[in-house]
Amino acid sequence: MKSRFSQIRFKFQLTLGLQIVLLGVALAGLIWSATVARLPAVSAVLGLVTLGVFAGLLAYASSGHRKLERFLDALAFDDLSLRLSEQDWDQQLARAANHVLGSVRDARVETEAKATYLDVLVKHVPVAVLSLAADGRIALQNNAARHLFQLPRLSRVDDLAVFGAHLPKALTAIAPGRQELVRAVRDEHVLELKVSATEIRLAGDAGGDVQTLLAIENIRSELDDREINAWRDLIRVLTHEIMNSVTPITSLARTVDTLAADVGTTDDPEELLEDMQAALATIVRRSEGLTQFVEGYRKLTALPQPRIETVPLLATLADVRRLCHQDFGDSLTIEVDVDPDRLALQADPALVQQALINLARNACFAVEGRPEPRVRLVARSVHGRLQVSVEDNGCGIAPEEIDQIFIPFFTTRKDGSGVGMPLARQIMAAHGGTIGVQSRVDEGTTVTLTF
Predict the structure, then answer these.
(1) Which residue in 193, 211, 57, 225 sits closest to 131, CA to CA?
(2) Which terminus has fewer CB within 10 Å in the chain: N or C?
(3) CA distance 252 to 249
(4) Which residue in 310, 432, 411 sits closest to 361, CA to CA?
(5) Helices 91-124 + 2-35 axis angle, to 10
(6) Model-level pTM?
């Protein structure tokens, strides 16, 4: 395009220059014939020639200007069907303008085709999509959104108040880039909505209109399935643990009852009393174990709301290391690695320390009996998020057990409670964070808390 416009400019300048020179020559001849030679007939002819050259100069200059005006008007008024004539003497300029108009026309067709494709895609995508303007108007909704809410009229976000006055407020309050769970109820129509928000800016004057694009999924059936599976796993574990305690208690109580009936008929009642005392002591121990089990369940179901404070991680991890050394002695190495030293997070210090103590104790148990047992407590800022990891070189966790370690009361230790990992996950969920586990059998385990 640069070379084409350079040629047009050169041709215009050359033609304009030649016409100016010709006009100057004609004008000079007119002056000479009229003042020096005093030839009236020649002067009249040269006058006509001068006027003709001047008229041609004006016509040439205005012709390019007119075509430029038509070209700019076509762009301004979106008239891309315009085609300038390429038959006259400034055909290069017309050809260049036609090329630009053709390129814009092709780009417009391609843009409209893409817009049509995206419109069809948005309308038929299985995820409900709503686009909210700043004034609460619903600028866009797809078929999935109409099917999800089943409303005959949905033009403003306030129309969703039939599912509860909280729903319009909850949808408009979601910050761009965030994801929230919202519950909506209308008669027997219950929705568990996972809503993701994205801010979009439409092209236009004054910087364009800003809208919020909401992607909405009803995860009610998925939550129901997970809840059923969670209850099934919980009931299985509860049944196992309770039966382990109740069965021997029942058996021993029956034995005590039998012995009590024989006390008056035996020749050696003291021996029967000793057996009864031993059985009763076992019943007491089993009952205490069952009480501890119930207490662990209470801890899981009565987690307090976090009280957010600034938690310096170096001091917190040092406290965890000190507590672990008190319980396990100095036979294992516990390292604390915080980079930078001033790293801190906004969380409930008591809950975070409780989660870290549970994880660190699990790691200490995992390295018992291992050569060169080592546990590392590491804190880092990774991609803008704070991560605290508990690493060990212990026995590891079998792949089939990884998915079960967060089930309440599931444990791989003989004397374990099975409460530590589920409690840590609940604490992280209360802080809006996540917990992840990586493990290899006979190599070690890394548990990472991401805030």
Answers:
(1) 211
(2) N
(3) 5
(4) 411
(5) 150
(6) 0.45
- CA–CA gap between residue 380 and residue 337 (Å, rounded): 9
Parallel, antiparallel, or unpaired: how do β-strands 444-450 and 179-186 relate? unpaired
Q: Please name the amino acid found at residue 27.
A: L
**Cα 348 from chain centroid?**
25
Strand, helix or coil for residue 446: strand
